[in-house]
Design brief:
413 residues, 22 strands, 5-stranded mixed β-sheet, 4-stranded antiparallel β-sheet, alpha+beta
Length: 413
Amino acid sequence: VYYGTVLEHILLENLCAFYDVGEHNEMKLHGADWNDAMDMAWENGESVAFTCAYAGNMKNIAEYLRKLQEKEMFDRIEVAEEMEILFTGDRELYESPEKKQQLLRQYTEKCAHDISGNTIVIRLDQLSRNLDEKADWMMENIRRREWVKDGENGWFNGYYDNNGRPVERCESGDVRMMLTGQVFAIMSGTAKKEQIKAICNSADKYLFDQKAGGYRLNTDFKEEKFDLGRMFGFAYGEKENGAVFSHMAVMYANALYKQGFIKEGYKVLKTLLDTAMDFDRSRMYPGVPEYFDNDGRGLYSYLTGAASWYMLTMITSVYGVHGELGDLVIEPALMPQQYNEKGDAKISLMFAGHGFYVMIHNPDKIMPDDAKIKSALCDGKNIENIEKMSVRISKEDIDKLSREKRHVIEIYI
């Protein structure tokens, strides 16, 4: 019996996926990524969208490995010796789908039925550098090969179908754009700032539909396209075929906030909220439906994934309350219309076992891009660690607080 670590398991998941590519050097779709209705491209389907996602994963893992090392928590790890082959840094191999698949086969054959139980030691600085190299290569490859131009704007192709053809394009009279590939490109950091602006313009032009309730999942392909998935068997505007699909729309908002596109992210969330709350149109109790159809009617009246992402985005991105290695960090990104008449906004939540009221005062209702935090208090005492729009309370100071009462944090802009 071999007992591996959680980190080892996470590395294994991401590294195997890096090598499991199709002929265009993007990760194989394998019948579905986030969307189980993309289930008819088993042989040759590729997901550029999830290649972006895995590149973002690797960047995040590398970043936290460096932070662990900086904090001198540990500087090396043990992994199964069979995994050593997955840590290759051969850029020539990265460029070759055939060589990648060959390496993956070598690894799986080594692990067939049994493994040795032996381990190797890897330094964290070597590991984080290796993950960064792989992520950078994936991102650059996508930027170079998958960008669909539309004049000054454009977007990323997100998929290859079972015939090995790119799914998205912009040709005379035939615009094929899907929201999913843009979400993961933005969220992962694959899309650069200028590309995010171009994607937002294109999404507003081709995917946004006020009547339907916001950003559609895709444009009308005008074919059943069963070389990609059964989703195209739905009428356009139903479910995954071009509906305003709440889950991906909220993830679009989250990605935009993450990259500092606050006005654009706010538009996504506000449009969904307004549609759901307009009973004459949505015909549903307030909540987050799976999707809105062509007329803005909410179908499948509660979808926990979309609701969770909506709450996550509101708390950690809009109010900006989140944790960083145990510290409590607050980076508010509220639009002027999200404050009350006095310019106040508040949120109540738990963090690290402690209750908090976070109150943000912005009497002049300054736009988040122009705002600056003047001062901040916790239970009436000054918080010293303040940057432009960021307040940080260390884990050590959090641990000193009483668990018997809720603590009041006030931020003045």
